[in-house]
Design a protein that fits this description.
By secondary structure, the chain is α+β, with helices and mostly antiparallel strands. It has a single domain, classed as Dimeric alpha+beta barrel (Alpha-Beta Plaits). The protein has three helices and six strands, in the order βααββββαβ. The strands form two sheets. Strands 2-5-1-6 form a four-stranded antiparallel β-sheet. β3 and β4 form a beta hairpin. The longest helix has 20 residues.
Length: 127
Amino acid sequence: MRFMMQMNVTGGSYQMEGWSKQDIKAMVDFMHRFNTELKSRGQWVTGEGLVSPDQARLVRAGDDGRPVVTDGPFAETKEFIAGFWIVEVKDADEAYALAAQVSLCPGPGGKPLHMPLEVRQVGSAPA
């Protein structure tokens, strides 16, 4: 079974405002170790961090089929997706356990962030 674990953060925590260089390094090192563990256990499918929402764009097709690109998604985004993982696990409980590990990512002073992760099973197209 594949699940997406989506890291949702607020603007301040995404920007790591007030974090020391050591705190940022500890967080990045934690994520690298977590990803390495997923790969070594065969659970890694993919994962990426995303740029901040001010760099996001909304795209629609114009009447002529060409892309119409506007700033987006929202003028004052308070929570947004900072990154995601797609993992291959035996069941939802295993995905939840992995998400709980990520939730303990260290923040300022090494204190666990207890950040929320949205966990959703990856669907398949109807047959």
